[in-house]
Amino acid sequence: MTQINKIPFHSPEGQQLLQESSAFQTLLTRLFKKQENNTFCGVQSSALLLSAQHFGAKFPDVTSQKDCNLESPPYVEGNMFSYTETSAAMDEAKVDAEGCTMEQVYNLFKQHGRKVKMYHADTLTVDEFRSLASKALSHHDSSWGVIANFDEYDLQQDFTVHGHFSPLAAYHASTDRFLLLDTWMNTVDVWVKTEDMFAAMKTIDSDTNKYRGFIILES
Q1: What is the pTM of this model?
Q2: Where does residue 218 rank: exposed (0-12), middle (13-18), buried (19+ CB within 10 A)?
């Protein structure tokens, strides 16, 4: 297996890439936390995007986002199922046992009254993915957001995990890399080449027999 070239986000080079990026989401990056439940990657990723969108409405100006108060986010992994909208999209006990599918994460956003689109990786090209995801991440108020559904093993993030969800938080054009905030507790957040990210999404979910892909939350 050829080693995938990734740049750790919290390295000096990783921080420099963020400073140079024109498409980035400060609020999402500040709110980011790893998942606590082994099977709640989809739930945690959804909570992060919903809370970032919430705070973005309060702090739309990029210059205020580095220091604004992000205490008490309305959506966190631990309270997502206290919302009837979440329970209408997926069963907590089943997610706790098996995780969730991309369709269920899509329906979670729909139940919460959000505008959202879902893309299976076999239905579009890597160039289309790059265009759609980078456009979403250029909304600095986090009114839009991106969740990738990919294979952790294929991306060489964790060799014990396959199907997984995590948000993307920035795009660096000159190196053609996306910033992956990996919710899995045993991984490092990394800058990933677009082609490698797309390849990890263009894998089949054995629970649905469909390709994985990505979800874009819109305003």
Answers
A1: 0.97
A2: middle
